[in-house]
TrEMBL record:
Localization annotation: Membrane
Family annotation (InterPro entries): Romo1/Mgr2 (IPR018450)
One GO BP: protein import into mitochondrial matrix
Provenance organism: Escallonia rubra
Entry similarity comment: Belongs to the MGR2 family.
Record carries keyword Transmembrane: yes
Keywords for this protein: Membrane, Transmembrane, Transmembrane helix
One Pfam family matching this protein: Romo1
Main location: membrane
GO cellular-component term (any): TIM23 mitochondrial import inner membrane translocase complex
Record's protein name: Reactive oxygen species modulator 1
Length: 74
């Protein structure tokens, strides 16, 4: 497989999107849990759900963007 292959670009896009989405989701989930006074251990669950959901969405969109740009050469 070539180093600059389409699959490698898509995989890198999904990985970067997941990392950025996870970081943003963790910050946003923590803020929302404190703001809405989520009780006790439910805060951990709320932050986890927000982190995973945000990572999945960001990863999906960045992977799709990488797929769209895969065939183009600049």
């Amino acid at each position: 497989m070539a180093k600059d292959s389409c699959l490698a670009r898509i995989t890198a896009g999904v990985a970067v999107g997941g990392a950025v989405g996870g970081a943003v989701g963790a910050v946003y989930g923590t803020y929302e849990a404190v703001r809405y006074k989520v009780p006790g251990l439910m805060k951990i669950r709320y932050v986890g759900q927000t982190t995973l959901g945000s990572a999945a969405i960001f990863g999906l969109f960045l992977g799709a963007g990488s797929l769209i740009h895969c065939g183009k050469s600049y």
